[in-house]
Design brief:
Layout: H1 4-9, H2 17-31, E1 36-41, H3 48-57, E2 63-68, H4 79-85, H5 97-106, H6 117-132, E3 137-142, H7 149-161, E4 167-173, H8 177-182, E5 188-190, H9 196-206, H10 213-222, H11 227-236, H12 239-247, H13 256-266, H14 271-282, H15 288-297, H16 304-310, E6 314-316, E7 321-323, H17 326-334, H18 338-354, H19 358-367, H20 374-389, H21 393-405, H22 410-426, H23 430-438, H24 447-464, H25 467-484, H26 489-506, H27 515-525, H28 532-545, H29 548-564, H30 567-572, H31 576-582, H32 586-603, H33 606-622, H34 626-642, H35 653-659, H36 663-674, H37 679-695, H38 699-711, H39 715-719, H40 722-731, H41 735-752, H42 755-768, H43 771-786, H44 791-807, H45 811-828, H46 831-843, H47 861-871, H48 876-883, H49 887-901, H50 906-913, H51 919-929
Parallel strand pairs: 1-4, 1-5, 2-3, 3-4
Antiparallel strand pairs: 6-7
Helix pairs in contact: 2-3, 4-7, 5-6, 6-7, 9-10, 9-11, 10-12, 13-17, 14-16, 14-17, 14-18, 15-18, 18-19, 19-20, 20-21, 21-22, 22-23, 22-24, 23-24, 24-25, 25-26, 26-27, 26-28, 27-28, 28-29, 29-31, 31-32, 32-33, 33-34, 34-47, 35-36, 35-37, 36-37, 37-38, 38-40, 40-41, 40-42, 41-42, 42-43, 42-44, ...
Domain HTH luxR-type: 852-917
GO biological process, one term: regulation of DNA-templated transcription
Keywords: DNA-binding, Transcription, Transcription regulation
């Protein structure tokens, strides 16, 4: 047998010139300030590790970081990331405080609230970027599929956000489903078998005998060009045996057969050496101290370690034992019966306890146990709790699941299964969470456990897109809240608020409960205990059950409570936008959402951030500003890409309607949402189409779209459609319907009193008023809307006033209003309304040129988003936190934007991105545009 070191030196790297050039090119790019990530994929033994070693050993003037994945490390949260980040500690001072704190808590170096894994990811990205300021950083993550899930998620996140940090991340991994899911979006390079010529060269170098090239080609073909298979087999067989094997019908050992080959090789050594190797295979971190301590405990002599290393299976270093290949370790561990494996795990557990390593001790104690053992289960649960405190939700889930298996009491077992499922859901492992819930013993499930299980199933239904579960989610959450009543009042109230939020999602498709029944249950829940949740539930129930004038005081009090609360409370209470929009208070709604988004970024809560940005994109459409909505949609895309989802699948159908996408496309998207149970998404899409119908003069179509929604009311989702319905009804010959809706809108305006609703109500009344009263109402509408932030409604008021003035033969006055309207619509990016305003101007005898901001069309969506944020005054750090990219990447994109637009400062950028905004500016533009 050949020692490990000799195995390495006897393995020339043939046939990998193109692969070497590819990786060297990435390293060269890092030297030039361009970052990259790459996953090397391939079957065991194909040469991934050798390729990475060959390239990185020759790197000079770069910081080289290495970390290997270990099979059992999934129970040790952020363990891989901690090992990778240890050499980077000198750069921690360059990070924002919240990112630095998140990294330290995740690493177990500080106490604090459990950090979201994406905040940890942003912190690691910033840390690598800071290190890259001193020179290129090359990170090699070998056997990445065996990293703990938290570390892998962080490093995959970093890989997707790299751009200009002088950092290269190189992963090697086998084909593995969970790994593929986590690393989605990271570039992949598959390593295949060696070509025949290279395989022959490798065999000639690896065997002592002489054989002809034809035989070598046959062997290479039989092994699929797998270098490890060829090398190990050539060491194990004579040329004559290889010749016989090449003539046999059975293929050469590879994969499982190669593991069997290693097992046969293992059996050639003394029992003591085999046992020592089993100890090494059972210890996931490869700790030399733990392995040697366990070896002494089971009576192995000290020299056995030297004999084990001489076998060539392992290399023994001062701090760690490393197998020469994962297949070798797997083969060794699998070669022993369960009794032997449990014996070595027990020894390792006892040594870990002596060393003060409770998490490692619990891991090995669980592996050493058969059947149930409540004491071990308790220790494993404690380890799970510690993992959760560091933000290690995946590790917490798996540890609790194993603790449940070891638990004898059915009730305690159920509790651990539910807690494991909740942690798995928090980590995004929805299918695993469902499987844990399916293992519950229904007979031993208490009322609280049933409520937690029901609540979690409802949440998972939305996560997995289960239409039936989505439609029933509000009713299921009410049932869960009933289970908590009288025992856990805070959990009851939070569950009720979640039921309301889900009702907004599924809307008119909600099953199992009516809107009135929901309101009554919210009212009852408000009495469970006092506090912010009680105020919230009281306001939501009033919103549903009471006449508008009676509901507004409670709604306003709840909004004011949200405005006064701290960020942590705001993140937990997501109902504010419903009340703000119900009050027609667009300022408060936007401010609460923007503040929620900032707080979510600060703590790395990407799900809350995703929801906030998505609702902001919808709210901007309600305010009539498609460009602002598009920026939020682009931020959602960036966010989805950051967490590994295709950003191209982010589609806001209402936004597409506003910006001129084909009607058939928008309608198809809207109809597709019906099958998913997301009734709210259908309503939003139909509303967007109705607005476009109105802009383009298709009033009958708009009326037909809006009428069923008006007749099927759903809170503010409906009465904020009243203005569209009134205009469509007036222009399509339904004055009675328009008058009835206008009366309700007028009543709401009198009660709410915000500038937005007052302006919209006056605009709608102007459409119904005789000519003698219409002008005063239009002027009043414009005055109110100028005090609001509803850009689109202001533009539409000026457009309708201008159209009315033109019909009154007052062309000069009409032009003034139409110019202002056109400027608003072009600034907001509303082409249908812009075209209508332009046509109306043409009818007054004035040609209105199309205005474009010079060079903006050449910007990519990401560049446009960054440019807009920079022009609005955001710093590079703020932009990086918003888009989950490094400040280096922000700076990289801004330099490109400056070159494309021909500017040299942010002030000039702001001027370039701001089109004509005042009437005088517009007239100057018209004059300059004339030949």
């Amino acid at each position: 047998m050949v020692p490990f070191a000799q195995h390495r030196s006897a393995s020339p790297l043939y046939g990998r010139a193109d692969d070497i050039r590819l990786i060297e090119g990435l390293v060269t790019g890092a030297r030039n300030g361009v970052s990259a990530a790459l996953v090397l994929r391939g079957e065991p033994g194909i040469g991934k590790t050798a390729l990475l070693r060959t390239v990185t050993e020759s790197i000079e003037s770069a910081l080289l970081l290495r970390v290997d994945g270990f099979q059992a490390e999934s129970a040790l949260p952020f363990a891989g990331m901690q090992r990778l980040g240890t050499p980077l500690q000198p750069f921690l001072g360059a990070l924002p405080a919240h990112q630095r704190d998140a990294l330290r808590v995740a690493a177990g170096a500080a106490d604090g609230p459990p950090p979201d894994r994406y905040l940890v990811g942003l912190g690691m990205l910033s840390l690598l970027a800071a290190a890259g300021e001193d020179g290129p950083v090359v990170c090699v993550i070998d056997d990445a599929h065996q990293l703990d899930r938290e570390s892998l998620e962080v490093l995959a996140f970093v890989s997707r956000r790299l751009k200009a940090e002088s950092v290269v991340l190189l992963f090697s991994a086998r084909d593995d489903g969970p790994f593929d899911l986590i690393t989605a979006g990271v570039p992949t390079h598959r390593l295949g078998g060696l070509d025949p010529l290279s395989a022959v060269q490798l065999l000639r170098e690896s065997t002592s005998g002489v054989f002809d090239p034809y035989l070598a080609a046959q062997i290479a073909e039989q092994t699929g060009g797998n270098p490890l298979a060829m090398i190990d087999l050539s060491h194990d067989f004579t040329v004559e045996q290889l010749t016989d094997a090449s003539l046999a019908e059975q293929p050469f050992p590879i994969g499982r057969r190669l593991e069997q080959h290693y097992t046969r090789e293992l059996r050639e050594y003394p029992a003591s050496v085999q046992t020592w190797l089993l100890l090494a295979a059972a210890e996931p971190t490869g700790s030399t101290d733990l392995i040697e301590g366990a070896a002494r405990r089971i009576g192995l002599a000290g020299e056995v370690a030297d004999l084990a290393e001489h076998s060539g299976f392992v290399a023994v270093h001062r701090s760690a034992v490393r197998f020469r290949h994962p297949l070798v370790r797997s083969a060794v561990y699998s070669a022993f019966p369960g009794t032997d494996r449990r014996r070595v795990h027990d020894a390792l557990a006892r040594v870990a306890a002596e060393r003060g390593l409770p998490d490692v001790e619990a891991l090995h104690a669980a592996a050493a146990t058969t059947g149930t053992d409540d004491a071990v289960a308790d220790r494993l649960e404690a380890a799970a709790d510690r993992a959760g405190m560091r933000g290690g939700l995946s590790s917490r889930a798996y540890s609790l699941a194993r603790a449940a298996e070891l638990t004898s009491d059915a009730g305690i077992r159920n509790g651990r299964l539910i807690a494991a499922a909740e942690a798995a859901a928090g980590a995004g492992a929805a299918q695993f969470a469902f499987s844990l819930l399916d293992d519950l013993d229904e007979r031993a499930l208490d009322t609280i456990g049933r409520g937690r299980s029901t609540s979690l199933r409802a949440m998972l239904a939305v996560f997995l897109g289960d239409p039936i579960g989505i439609r029933r989610a509000p009713a299921d959450l009410l049932a869960a809240a009933d289970a908590f009543h009288g025992a856990l009042p805070e959990l009851e109230q939070r569950t009720l608020i979640r039921a309301f939020e889900f009702a907004l999602t599924t809307e008119w498709m909600m099953e199992g409960v009516s809107l009135e029944q929901l309101g009554l249950r919210l009212r009852a829940g408000a009495q469970s205990q006092d506090g912010p949740l009680s105020i919230a539930l009281g306001a939501l129930s009033a919103h549903i059950l009471l006449p508008y004038d009676e509901a507004v005081p409670a709604m306003r009090a709840a909004v004011e409570m949200l405005q006064a609360c701290d960020d942590a409370t705001l993140l937990e209470l997501g109902f504010g936008v419903a009340l703000g929009m119900g009050l027609w208070d667009e300022r408060a709604s936007v401010e609460l959402l923007e503040r929620t988004a900032r707080a979510a970024r600060d703590v790395g809560s990407l799900r809350v951030l995703d929801t906030s940005l998505w609702v902001l994109s919808i709210l901007e459409l309600v305010r009539g500003d498609p460009i602002a909505a598009g920026r939020y949609v682009e931020q959602v895309r960036e966010l989805r890409r950051a967490i590994g989802y295709p950003g191209e699948q982010v589609v806001n159908a209402s936004y597409l309607a506003w910006v001129g996408a084909p009607r058939a496309q928008v309608e198809a998207i809207a109809e597709a949402t019906i099958g998913t149970g997301f009734g709210g998404a259908w309503t939003i899409a139909m509303t967007g189409l109705s607005v476009r119908d109105i802009a383009e003069g298709h009033y009958v179509d708009a009326y037909k779209r809006l009428k069923p929604m008006i007749e099927r009311p759903f809170l503010q989702v409906t009465y904020q459609q009243w203005p569209e319905y009134i205009e469509a009804a007036v222009r399509s010959g339904h004055p009675d319907a328009a008058a009835a809706a206008a009366g309700r809108l007028r009543h709401h305006a009198a009660v709410s009193g915000t500038p937005w609703i007052r302006g919209v109500a006056d605009r709608c009344d102007a459409l119904l008023a005789p000519d003698s009263d219409a002008e005063a109402l239009f002027v009043s509408a414009i005055g109110w809307l100028e005090q609001s932030t509803a850009t689109g409604d202001l533009g539409r008021a000026r457009l309708l006033y201008g159209e009315w003035l033109r019909r009154m033969k007052r062309r000069r006055d009409a032009r003034q209003q139409l110019r202002a309207a056109l400027s608003i619509f072009e600034r907001a990016g509303a082409p249908s309304f812009s075209n209508r305003a332009r046509s109306e101007l043409a009818a007054t005898g004035e040609h209105a040129p199309r205005t474009e901001v010079s060079g903006v069309a050449s910007l990519t969506p990401r560049e446009e988003t960054i440019a807009s944020m920079a022009a609005a005054g955001s710093t590079n750090q703020e932009i990086s936190s918003t888009l989950f990219i490094s400040t280096n990447t922000v700076d990289y994109h801004l330099r490109k934007v400056f070159r494309k637009l021909g500017v040299s400062s942010r002030r000039q950028l702001a001027e370039r991105l701001a089109p004509a905004d005042t009437e005088d500016d517009y007239e100057d533009h018209v004059v300059r545009s004339k030949p």
